[in-house]
Amino acid sequence: MRKEKEKIKIIPLGGLNEIGKNLTVIEYKNDIIVIDCGLKFPDEEMLGIDVVIPDTGYLQKNLDKVKGIFLTHGHEDHIGALPYVLKEVNVPVYGTKLTLGIVETKLKEHNMLDSVDLRCVKPKDIIKLENSSVEFIRTSHSIADAVAIAIHTPLGVILHTGDFKIDYEPIDGHVADLARFAELGKKGVLVMLADSTNVERPGYTMSESTVGNTFQKIFSEAKGRIIVATFASHIHRIQQVITAAMKYDRKVAISGRSMENIMEVAMELGYIKAAKDIFINIDSINKYPENKVTIITTGSQGEPMSALSRMAASEHKKVNIIPGDMVVISASPIPGNEKLISRVINQLFKKGADVIYEALADVHVSGHACQEELKLMHTLVKPKFFIPVHGEYRHLKQHGELAVKLGMNKNNIVIADNGDIIEVSRDSIRKNGVVMSGQIFVDGLGVGDVGNIVLRDRKHLSQDGILTVVVTIEKQTGNVIAGPDIISRGFVYVRESEDLMEEAREIVRGALKKCEEKHITEWASIKSNIKEVLRMFLYERTKRKPMILPIIMEI
Amino acid sequence: MRKEKEKIKIIPLGGLNEIGKNLTVIEYKNDIIVIDCGLKFPDEEMLGIDVVIPDTGYLQKNLDKVKGIFLTHGHEDHIGALPYVLKEVNVPVYGTKLTLGIVETKLKEHNMLDSVDLRCVKPKDIIKLENSSVEFIRTSHSIADAVAIAIHTPLGVILHTGDFKIDYEPIDGHVADLARFAELGKKGVLVMLADSTNVERPGYTMSESTVGNTFQKIFSEAKGRIIVATFASHIHRIQQVITAAMKYDRKVAISGRSMENIMEVAMELGYIKAAKDIFINIDSINKYPENKVTIITTGSQGEPMSALSRMAASEHKKVNIIPGDMVVISASPIPGNEKLISRVINQLFKKGADVIYEALADVHVSGHACQEELKLMHTLVKPKFFIPVHGEYRHLKQHGELAVKLGMNKNNIVIADNGDIIEVSRDSIRKNGVVMSGQIFVDGLGVGDVGNIVLRDRKHLSQDGILTVVVTIEKQTGNVIAGPDIISRGFVYVRESEDLMEEAREIVRGALKKCEEKHITEWASIKSNIKEVLRMFLYERTKRKPMILPIIMEI
Fold first, then answer.
1. Residue of B nearest to A348 (CA)
2. Chain A contacts of B337, Cβ < 8 Å?
3. Which 3-state string (H, E, C) describes A394-459?
4. pLDDT per position as a tens digit, B54-83
5. Is residue A474's pLDDT more than 90?
6. Residues of B in contact with A342 (CB under 8 A)
7. Domains of chain A
8. Can you tell me the distance from the alpha carbon of B367 to that of B208, in angstroms, rounded to the nearest whole number?
9. Separation between Cα atoms, residue A166 and residue A207, nearest integer Å
10. pLDDT tens digit string along A251-287?
11. Whole-model pTM?
């Protein structure tokens, strides 16, 4: 009995069956290792929500075991929940230089920088913990300084690829450490968790450097200003714009708060190679001839408040789009953003700018491995067990099938869900129970104070608006002494619907009278009577179902 | 002075700078010809809106001139506004057999069939009007029986392509009447209006028959049931499913109301070629072995109430997804629907079905011409003037550029907006003024009773909910005698926010007291005082801005 088999627990708390809020827990004896701590942007039905973070109750309960949060790279879906989670789980945060640089600006915004223990690591570093150790391995991704994480335990190695692609011509010259993956594979990897984002795409993801070729062509031909929108954190993309600007003798100005923030970090840490005098302030762009100006900006997803959207809508204080401007949208639409981007493109065209986007030229490549790159990783690492991560169910399932095609036994693959406890021994893997998991909504200052009931109400309000019905009743007699007043918002044009509203009042009066006749005096009953007759009346007349909010005042 | 130059007016009332609600007015002397009468599905910000239709005030004002509505094909974005527009502009409706068949089912639903004059035409038919005549010319599209429309006037020919592609192997054997386009071109076409949807795509759109090849492969390999989701109106796609089913000895059941409706029309009118005994009722699918069953269903866009979505969510009464089912989603996501479709795919995979969609196999082709097909049309028709239609601004602009590349003079191309009056003479084209145009929202039974104020309120309500503040005041003294009561919906979990709400009441009491002290008795002032203090308080405490609705009852 005493010699219970040793186990490693792998518990994904986010990133499975969804895109975003990546957080994986690896637990061996007294060591709990957290890989990434990301947020997710709200779905359409999460009305009014700012961001969504993972439920980390499990970590809070086992706080004494948590040795640290280990970051693979600096994207929001991998670091964005840190300011919220660190408030409950204040443990050391390990990451590479750029990753921590971005984390720092984030913590600064939340006034938390002083209270967090940030520990900078380099690829090949190994952090020793009580019963295990954590190794960082260089990969390529659409942000510099990305790493995979290998956890060494007496039972074997757990390898988490993080988000990755294989880029043989990366902008910074640092190719993924394929040799280390091969070496680990040769020695034997117990479990691999690997990025499934692009598993549906055959072939290879093109090298980041191919985008540079397109930029060079654009810069060689453009006669006016060049405005490039891309992800603020995509240092290599930005580097390529700067390189092209230097070659074609253009100055570079930066627009957009997140772009300015990350550029500051990237410059300070030496991630951008540029002649110092190439940068100009956005205020002074008009002092230069148009063919000497490049602007790098946020807004590649058409985000309504972003710099590019404001330029397109003539709401940007510093940049006014003019005929001859060449706007390059160097990004793919994230699903759900297509219409926003399309609107910006239309506005820019209308202002006379030329617009180049993915449909028209090779101005973007993905940061995730396609099928052949995934096959390379599987072939190098040859894990005994495999858990596809970072994807919706369809991606996880197809990544599992890809592994089977490469010869893996189907029973050695676990398609899991957030909260699953996956138990691994030297020779077995299985799901064994669940821990609390889920999504916590952040809305303004509130973390978790908006839940499904509030969202259901917002949805209802958004569809047909609200009718408030107020009646003042005399306590002693039960007589109505003021009202019913009906005020609506988001239902109909009030001016054109006066008759309808007067009829509605009449309906409520009737309901109140009936209650009186039947000696119904309970507020709850009176209210539900009012609701019911109004609901029926309004639906019959308008086929709409506004929220109805009866309020009884008693004096 | 009397001999003013003769003019044709071309007035697009919908379909420019947008996708949908296509409606073009061609006016020559006493003839107003309306081409198409489509609806648009609401954008995300049009909360609670069912459909959007064009403003046809111009037609209502010139009712005596309107000779008819001439339909190019039976898609919603070309016929969907008929039930609303015909109520105001009851003129003859001309269309091909299938188009009118679909219009009939639509009018039936609106109880309008008896009051509308439907006139069936065939390709090559010419309808003579007072001063002009209207000719129908066969094209190919993703629905059978599509036509282009040529309007013959003494000043020249106006050609409207409608939605089209060039398909040399169409399912019904009827290739677009290229000879007639060439003939018109040879004689001289004054103005062409042409579909711009796919102008950003190089090359050719594949033939519809290529999808049939994929179906044959799928049917030859599938061991369980095959469930194909596609657009209800895509008769040729449906025919290809049926053809494959016949070849592989499977029965066919239909699911989804719109699919059933259109299949009934298509069968009755002879647009589907099938052995009669191939169809089985959806109720009896379980009487057949799984490898003998095909189900054709709606829901290819992931629409939440569609048959496929209900199957995926285990809410379909007749069809229960089981492992071994092969689901084919034979459609492209319409921008905005990606997440809905993705959700359905994930649910189907989770239930053990195999799912095939566009990312994985050639199960869909577009119905619109790509660049090379557009070039063919321009080359055949050789119009003097050109107005790109059916597209957002980016599409219209690029379609204009394509025409310039083919040799057209830039000044002969008009990029217009809905409502523009485009005046054409034998040798000139120009914009000259505008007519009222715009979008009218249909919400339930209301047509036009929801406008921007209502939508703005719905948006506001959807983001942070509403707080209703009720106070009862004694008229004579101005004293508060009941309340303030605060009721919120969609703002915060009330139970967990009792303190916040109590503080809010205190804030309102304070504001009321101040009003009393300052002898402010005007309701409007009291209300705006309450609003202001509450807004500031709530924003400071929650960083949210719920709608605040103060109500004062007087007794």
1. B394
2. none
3. HHHHHHHHHHHHCCCCHHHECCCCCCEEEEECCCCEEEEEECCCCEEEEECCEECCCCHHHHHHHH
4. 999 999 999 999 999 999 999 999 999 999
5. no
6. 335, 392, 394
7. 8-203+366-444 (3.60.15.10), 208-356 (3.40.50.10710), 452-554 (3.10.20.580)
8. 8
9. 8
10. 999 999 999 999 999 999 999 999 889 999 999 999 9
11. 0.89
**Phi, psi for A25 (deg, rounded to 5):** -105, 130
Kindly report, residue by residue over A486-534, the tens digit of the pLDDT.
Answer: 989 999 876 667 888 889 999 999 988 888 888 777 788 888 889 999 9
Compute the C-alpha angle A427/A430/A433, nearest 5°: 140
A447 touches chain B (CB under 8 A): no
Query: Which residues in chain B touch residue A482, judged by CB atoms under 8 angstroms apart?
Result: 472, 553-555
> What are the backbone angles phi and psi of residue A145, rounded to the nearest 5°?
65, 30
For residue B344, what pLDDT band results from cuts at 50, 70 and 90? very high
B316, B368, B378, B395: which is the annotated catalytic residue? Answer: B368
The total number of residues shown for chain B amounts to: 555
CA distances from residue A390 to A198, B58, B358, B418 in whole angstroms, order as listed? 10, 54, 21, 44
Q: With beta carbons less than 8 A apart as the criterion, state whether B340 and B366 touch.
A: no
Beta bridge partner(s), residue B423: B9, B430
Pairing, β B147-153 against β B156-160: antiparallel
Q: By three-state DSSP, how is residue B66 classified?
A: strand
pLDDT of residue B495: 67
Give the span between the Cα atoms of A533 and A525, in whole angstroms: 12
Nearest CA in chain B to A50: B463
Q: Which of B45, B49, B346, B396 to mutate to test the interface with A (most CBs of A within 10 A)?
A: B346
Confidence of residue B335 (pLDDT cuts 50, 70, 90): confident
Q: Which two tokens stand for residue B486?
A: 């605060």
- What number is the average pLDDT over the span B149-168? 97
Query: Residue B510: CB partners within 8 Å, gap ≥ 6?
Result: B533
B394/A497 Cβ within 8 A: no
Query: Residue B226: pLDDT above 70?
Result: yes
| Cβ–Cβ gap B346/A392 under 8 Å | yes
Does residue B212 carry a pLDDT above 90?
yes
Tell me the CA distances in angstroms from A452 to A80, A461, B453, one per residue in order.
22, 14, 27
Please indicate if the annotation marks A316 as binding a ligand. no
Q: What residues in B contact A464, CB-CB < 8 Å?
A: 48, 443-444, 458
Which residue's entry shows tokens 């003494």?
A: B154
Range of weakest confidence among A365-379, A480-494, B193-207:
A480-494
Distance from CA of A326 to the nearest CA of B (A): 14
pLDDT value at B155 more than 80? yes
Q: What was the pLDDT predicted at A1?
A: 44
Q: Does A493 touch chain B (CB under 8 A)?
A: yes
When pLDDT is averaged across residues A428-456 and rounded to a whole number, the result is 90
Q: Count CB neighbours of B358 within 10 A.
A: 15
Q: Kindly list the distances between the CA atom of residue A107 and the CA atoms of A82, A240, B6, B60, in Å, as whole numbers in the listed order.
A: 8, 28, 71, 61
Gyration radius of chain B's alpha carbons:
29
The token pair at B285 is: 């699918």
User: How many other β-carbons are positioned within 10 Å of the β-carbon of residue A339?
Assistant: 16
pLDDT category of residue B378 using cuts at 50, 70 and 90: very high
Look at residue B2 in the predicted model and tell me its pLDDT. 46
Pairing of strands A133-138, A126-128: antiparallel
* Those residues with Cβ within 8 angstroms of residue B124's Cβ, 6 or more apart along the chain or in another chain: B135, B136, B137, B138, B177, B180
DSSP secondary structure letters along A325-357: -EEEE-SPPPTT-HHHHHHHHHHHHHTT-EEE-
Is A32 strand, coil or helix? strand
> Cβ of B489 and A468 within 8 Å?
no
Q: Are B273 and B267 in contact (CB under 8 A)?
A: no
